[in-house]
User: Which sequence fits this backbone?
């Protein structure tokens, strides 16, 4: 800005800054000038037709405003060693891990720390990297809002909004990209601002109060504070907030400061990690029990303590933890945005809490995970102090327990809830019975169709079908397959899309394995494709285990799809039907359009179908199975399909137009997807009592999650027999 | 139903050669010209106005060395007023080369290099030091020079190196190119290839 180049303005600036430093008895610090500039700018003579009444600010006004602003909002200029600032970075890291763990994990992996790009934002409250006109507007809002900690959430919003760019950045360019982030237009500022407000709403109050105490108004300015903070290593929630979330406000009582405001949209799910005996002896009514130590014997946990820091070695175990959690909380808790998980345990077993916290956040990248500070003892003490009911000497039965916890707080009373859920269960059971009968007719239908398919297939020359070997066709026979990273079938349960019927002909091997791509003709191994967290995984099945052949970024793939001209660069997949190609391409496109992997599109699918009904269907299916398989065996491509109901279902994902698949309500996710489709195309509901209809009915009771982008529904294949080329071009 | 294949191109890096990556850090007092050095080198321009670096800035430069060696330099421009020593150590850690910068018209900035060097030494402690270069900036202001050329070479111990003004683009680029190959040599052939002296530099 020209104005600040004038010698007299510069002198004035210097004088003011010197004066400030003297009155504060502190040294000049970088960035102070950036904070002063917008205030000095108030002296710029107004140009054009602005209101006549405004006179340029006087020098002492400017100085007073500046001093007051720094005092209240820019807290980092007072301490010599910037200890509060460094504390702020630690808090910021935790906050990022709380709201967007995959990003923080990515940073950790790449050796990037938030201070590398946040410092100018924190120090100058965005002034140094933002155009001054915007800075003034931003500060205006900040003053109006009056929350000193808000800048952290703004920074968080900036980073999370750029998530996709960041995750795709090449390693060497990453820091440069990060330092170039910021707020550059009014529109951007508005959207970032409201996103930041949302993030504030989604953050436990403990965080704010700790930031206030440690960062903004530090009483002790010495370093131990910093080290202590670094060492605690988890996102803490104070016992009072835990209690506040666990007990609804008593009628007629004023809201306590530690109780969540009525506007709070999320619920705290208390996951109690203590041994079963202790849990049954005494617990908070809302707690869900997860006996971490018993499920995963001590040895493996304490082994973890050392193993925690060696990447990769513990991957299978973290997936076991995930499975166990799903078992405890139900399949769908993962997709429930509004359930924040707070771990509580014995205070002397903090290592267990830490290990669990690390597994959930750093390894599984789950959002909204916290730890109750002081352990169960502190929570209990606080609850007793306010004479809340403690459940004592009562057996714990997981059935239905988490249901009441997971329900929105604004729901009706417990009694009516119970009645309601009983009614729902009854309806579901009834539906399932009908479903079963319709399922049988569907199965009959299916076999008829297969029969047709067989005759059709018989006409295609067998020579065109790739020979199946145990590795992609271009990989050398010497390549050591055991070196590949491993996955488990269950890891893919959270996949957005899953397909296990493709043949990998050419896959670019890991460099170490074989340096050259050589095409050995039509040979390939049957592989599983899955889209998960924005990546397309290509893996080979070995029983329960999968060897990861390749991983591709979906965005890159979609870009690559249009340039078919580049032969054999990375991967040639082989599908045995136009429909499959189509559904694959659609799934890719949908995944690309989908929201960032921060929120893998999952839905709070509630009760699904009663377990017994599932079992019956599964049994029925498996008894029908051999027949199906027999038929399939004659069609080379299907012959390799595993004979599980699940596999059918997965296949069904790509072939929504075959109604029979709906009969296997094995994975609620797939089920719902279908239900969604159905909502759009009622003609699919040709079978009136189909499980889909049922599902829909249940879904009507809760607000629909919009996590699955519209495109994925709209793009679902409906016209069979279209050439792949058409789709690719489209 | 016809058998169909889908061909997928992977990301577009496919054709790009592999770059050898190095981290180069710029250290020195405030306003000695670290950012100018970096922008001149990476973006080939010189900003007339001084803008303080708060925290860190990053620049990336890709160069091809003789023998078709592709090098990617990640330049960490560390704000002259950076915060606490612990954080600085994090930034210094893992660097392949350190460029210590001073302003030839500001004797203090020259004296302070000792402190900066101390930080580097402390960070690397027992491990081998990175390649370290000494840069005297702003030679176009030689008429108000405060640090004598002899001082510089004395400090440097070996040859006379880059006294620069980054207003003079050509020299800057040459200096960098030269330092780069040195960095590369040091990395590839072991630090002993260039002797054990702390300061190395390349004659222009």
Assistant:
């Amino acid at each position: 800005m020209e104005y600040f180049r004038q010698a007299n303005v510069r002198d004035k600036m210097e004088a003011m800054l010197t004066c400030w430093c003297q009155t504060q008895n502190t040294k000049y610090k970088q960035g102070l000038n950036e904070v002063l500039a917008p205030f000095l700018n108030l002296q710029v003579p107004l140009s054009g037709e602005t209101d006549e009444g405004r006179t340029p600010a006087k020098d002492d006004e400017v100085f007073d405003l500046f001093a007051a602003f720094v005092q209240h909002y820019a807290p980092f200029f007072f301490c010599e060693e910037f200890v509060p600032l460094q504390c702020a970075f630690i808090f910021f890291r935790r906050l990022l891990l709380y709201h967007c763990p995959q990003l923080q994990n990515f940073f950790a992996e790449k050796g990037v720390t938030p201070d590398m790009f946040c410092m100018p934002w924190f120090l100058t409250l965005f002034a140094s990297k933002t155009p001054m006109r915007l800075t003034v507007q931003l500060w205006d809002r900040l003053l109006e809002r009056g929350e000193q900690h808000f800048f952290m959430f703004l920074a968080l919003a900036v980073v999370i909004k750029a998530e996709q760019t960041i995750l795709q950045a090449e390693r060497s360019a990453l820091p440069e990209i990060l330092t170039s982030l910021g707020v550059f237009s009014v529109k951007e500022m508005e959207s970032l601002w409201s996103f930041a407000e949302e993030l504030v709403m989604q953050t436990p109050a403990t965080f704010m109060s700790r930031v206030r105490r440690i960062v903004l108004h530090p009483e002790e300015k010495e370093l131990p504070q910093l080290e202590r903070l670094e060492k605690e290593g988890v996102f803490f929630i104070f016992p009072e907030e835990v209690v506040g979330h666990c007990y609804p406000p008593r009628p007629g009582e004023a809201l306590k400061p530690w109780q969540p405001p009525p506007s709070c949209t999320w619920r705290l799910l208390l996951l109690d990690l203590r041994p079963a005996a202790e849990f049954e002896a005494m617990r908070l009514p809302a707690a869900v029990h997860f006996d971490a130590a018993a499920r995963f014997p001590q040895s493996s946990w304490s082994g973890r303590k050392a193993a925690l820091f060696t990447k990769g070695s513990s991957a299978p175990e973290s997936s076991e933890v995930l499975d166990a959690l799903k078992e405890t909380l139900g399949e769908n808790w993962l997709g429930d945005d509004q359930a924040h998980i707070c771990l509580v345990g014995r205070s002397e077993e903090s290592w267990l809490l830490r290990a669990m916290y690390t597994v959930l956040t750093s390894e599984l990248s789950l959002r909204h995970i916290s730890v109750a500070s002081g352990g169960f003892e502190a929570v209990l003490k606080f609850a007793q102090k306010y004479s809340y009911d403690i459940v004592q000497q009562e057996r714990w039965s997981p059935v239905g327990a988490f249901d009441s916890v997971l329900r929105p707080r604004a729901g009706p009373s417990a009694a009516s809830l119970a009645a309601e859920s009983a009614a729902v269960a009854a309806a579901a059971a009834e539906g399932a019975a009908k479903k079963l009968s319709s399922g049988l007719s569907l199965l009959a239908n299916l076999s008829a169709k297969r029969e047709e398919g067989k005759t059709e297939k018989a006409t295609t020359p067998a020579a065109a079908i790739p020979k199946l070997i145990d590795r992609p066709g271009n990989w050398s026979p010497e390549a050591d397959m055991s070196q590949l990273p491993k996955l488990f079938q269950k890891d893919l349960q959270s996949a957005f899309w899953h397909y296990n019927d493709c043949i990998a002909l050419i896959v670019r091997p890991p460099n170490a394995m074989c340096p050259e791509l050589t095409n050995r003709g039509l040979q390939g191994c049957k592989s599983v494709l899955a889209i998960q967290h924005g990546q397309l995984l290509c893996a080979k099945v070995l029983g329960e285990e999968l060897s990861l052949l390749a991983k591709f970024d979906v965005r890159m793939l979609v870009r690559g799809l249009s340039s078919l001209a580049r032969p054999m660069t990375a991967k040639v997949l082989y599908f045995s039907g136009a429909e499959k190609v189509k559904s694959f391409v659609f799934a890719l496109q949908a995944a690309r359009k989908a929201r960032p992997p921060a929120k893998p599109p999952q839905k709070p699918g509630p009760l699904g179908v009663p377990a017994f009904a599932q079992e019956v269907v599964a049994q029925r299916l498996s008894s029908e199975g051999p027949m199906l398989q027999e038929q399939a065996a004659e069609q080379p491509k299907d012959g390799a399909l595993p004979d599980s109901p699940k596999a059918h279902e997965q296949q069904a994902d790509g072939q929504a137009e075959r109604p029979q698949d709906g009969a296997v309500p094995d994975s609620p996710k797939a089920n719902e997807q279908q239900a969604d489709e159905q909502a759009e195309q009622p003609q699919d509901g040709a079978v009136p009592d189909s499980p889909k209809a049922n599902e829909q009915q249940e879904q009507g009771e809760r607000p629909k999650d919009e996590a699955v982008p519209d495109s994925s529904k709209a793009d679902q294949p409906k016209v069979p027999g279209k050439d792949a080329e058409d789709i690719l071009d489209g | 139903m016809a058998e169909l294949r889908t061909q997928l191109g992977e990301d577009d890096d496919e054709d790009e050669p592999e770059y050898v990556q190095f981290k180069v850090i710029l250290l020195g007092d405030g306003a000695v010209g670290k950012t100018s050095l970096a922008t001149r080198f990476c973006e080939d321009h010189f900003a007339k106005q001084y803008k303080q670096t708060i925290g860190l800035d990053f620049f990336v430069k890709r160069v091809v060395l003789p023998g078709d060696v592709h090098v990617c330099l990640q330049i960490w421009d560390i704000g002259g007023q950076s915060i606490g020593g612990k954080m600085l150590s994090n930034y210094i850690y893992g660097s392949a080369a350190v460029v210590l910068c001073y302003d030839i018209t500001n004797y203090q900035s020259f004296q302070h290099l000792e402190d900066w060097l101390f930080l580097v030494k402390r960070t690397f402690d027992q491990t081998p030091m990175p390649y370290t270069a000494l840069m005297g900036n702003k030679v176009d202001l030689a008429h108000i020079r405060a640090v004598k050329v002899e001082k510089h070479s004395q400090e440097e111990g070996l040859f006379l190196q880059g006294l620069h003004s980054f207003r003079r683009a050509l020299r800057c680029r040459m200096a960098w190119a030269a330092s780069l190959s040195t960095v590369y040599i040091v990395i590839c052939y072991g630090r002993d290839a260039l002797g054990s002296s702390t300061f190395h530099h390349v004659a222009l």
Chain B has one domain: 20-200. The interface with chain A takes residues 1-14, 19, 21, 30, 49, 52, 54-60, 72, 74, 76, 79-81, 83-84, 86-87, 90-91, 94 of chain B (CB under 8 Å). The CA atoms of residues 75 and 170 of chain B lie 19 Å apart. Chain B has six helices and seven strands.
